Amino acid sequence: MKAVILYDSKTKGGSTEMLIDSIGQQLAESGLYVEKAKCIATADYSFIKEFDIVILGAPVYNFIVSPQLLGAFLQGNLKKHLKKKRVALFLTCWTAESMAAVFYLPQLKMHLLTNRILVEKIFHPVESSSDNAIESFVDDLLKQYERSIGSRNKSIIWSDEAQDWLEVVPGFLREKIRSMAAEYAIMNGYKEITVEMLDIARHEIGEK
């Protein structure tokens, strides 16, 4: 599983960057491949298609979410490439969490109406070094991701031939391939997993 953290921050080495590094480390320790990328409003975000989870994070300045992240939605193509992605959100600010959830998170969520938001969190800057707060965020993120995958996988039908093909796969790989095939089917609009679809998916994934 692959995750990317897209973030904005004006302060190099500040509380937001410390938090991002800690979240990335905990995700990596949980077995994920993790990358981070600092947002530029007009950048090309087509690279996020390679990732299963996209984490968006930024501080709040003068009541506005940091401008490069917001600009990526308004001026860039981030919204286009986030389509159908599972997303997690966090902000860092000094405002009380209840108020920040009302005034600041919606600045991002208004651009994510068609996305599955797995978890959202307001971090007080002092929590940027809090192992408990970060661990809780990561645990909730992973649980919600697995839950979303499980519920969607159940809606996918496997043809008899595809099930026979899957039975030949070594047991230790079978569930991983089942999950990857279901995810590919969902992302590409297949209602049934067939041997033909598996062959297409194998070639497409192998070419990336």
Automatic annotation (TrEMBL):
Keywords: Membrane, Transmembrane, Transmembrane helix. It comes from the Bacteria. InterPro entries: Flavodoxin_dom (IPR026816), Flavoprotein-like_sf (IPR029039), LI-POR_suB-like_C (IPR013580), P-CP_red_C (IPR042298). Residues 158-202 form the Light-independent protochlorophyllide reductase subunit B-like C-terminal domain. GO terms for biological process: chlorophyll biosynthetic process; photosynthesis. The chain crosses the membrane at residues 53-74, 86-105. Residues 5-102 form the Flavodoxin domain. One of its GO terms (molecular function) is oxidoreductase activity. Coiled coil: none annotated. This is Proto-chlorophyllide reductase 57 kD subunit. It comes from Chlorobium phaeobacteroides (strain DSM 266 / SMG 266 / 2430).
